[in-house]
Amino acid sequence: MASSSFSSLLIYTQITLFLLILVLVSLTRASRAADVAMVDLSGDEIDWPTPSTSIYDGIDEIEIEEEDALAGGGRRSLMWSRMRYYISYGALSANRVPCPPRSGRSYYTHDCWRARGPVRPYTRGCSAITRCRR
């Protein structure tokens, strides 16, 4: 009699410990996932941009980061970047041409007014809509 009650107590204790460990593991995973998915809404993140801030500020650093990321071969995330992009008030003004006419620069070239080097116009591959007809 005593041995059966002892074995059942042992089984209940093992089940309880297993469930406790399972709950602790799931809680730590949930807290890690919450830390990764959390959006930082501190005061400086939601300030209005100043007129001197534009989407083209720091474009050289972005190109360096892209080269490093391609060389590393690791996964990239938008959350890792500390850059904040704003559209300048000048870009929002009416009747403004984004790039000089006949410069050969595409609208998609970052800061086409200060761009150096060869022209790389926007190109895209075939799609179901265009069926490769141009």
TrEMBL record:
InterPro entries: RALF (IPR008801). One of its GO terms (molecular function) is hormone activity. One of its GO terms (cellular component) is plasmodesma. Residues 1-33 form the signal peptide. Keywords: Disulfide bond, Hormone, Secreted, Signal. The keyword Disulfide bond applies. It is found in: Secreted. It comes from the Eukaryota. It holds the Pfam family RALF. GO terms for biological process: calcium-mediated signaling. Belongs to the plant rapid alkalinization factor (RALF) family. This is Uncharacterized protein.
